[in-house]
Amino acid sequence: MMGEDIRFTLFAEVFAALAHPKRLEIVHILGHGEHTAGELVEKTGLSKANVSQHVGILKARGLIHCEKRGTFCHYRLTDPGVLDTCEQIRHLILDRMELSSRHRTELTRAKAPVRGKSHP
User: Domain spans of the chain?
Assistant: First the structure.
């Protein structure tokens, strides 16, 4: 059982690293190719310090890799599966939101005539 505990702890740490909108944005950007820190600053609108902080968290969890070339660090995803996983979760969320929205619409339609009726 101890191995299971460690496995779930590691899963939780990876999901925690992905639990910030800007880190998800960085993953999305890197999913389309390698970028330098400066390019990530430009694309995300974050400061260099903030990009560095977010990249550090993603690197610590093994989601991105840095290759130093000259004076620049080039970041890339460690595995394309990282982006695939994020996309699967995004679809799950969108499906849930669509379902929730559909139920809200149906409930609103069902309640509207009742509220509009006058009782004798």
Answer: 13-109
Q: Is 51 helix (H, G, I), strand (E, B) or coil?
A: helix
Q: Are 51 and 85 in contact (CB under 8 A)?
A: no
For the entire predicted model, the pTM comes to: 0.76
Cα separation of the two ends of the chain: 66
Indicate the SS3 state at residue 117.
coil
Domain 13-109 top-level CATH class = mainly alpha
Q: Which residues contact 62 (CB under 8 A, 6 or more apart)?
A: 14, 78
Task: Show the tokens assigned to 42.
Answer: 């430009």
Give me 78's structure tokens: 């460690």
Q: Do 44 and 29 touch, CB atoms closer than 8 A? A: yes
pLDDT band, residue 105 (cuts 50/70/90): confident
CB 33 within 8 A of CB 27: no
Of 87, 73, 53, 84, the residue nearest 44 (C-alpha): 53
Q: Which pair of structure tokens corresponds to residue 105?
A: 């619409």
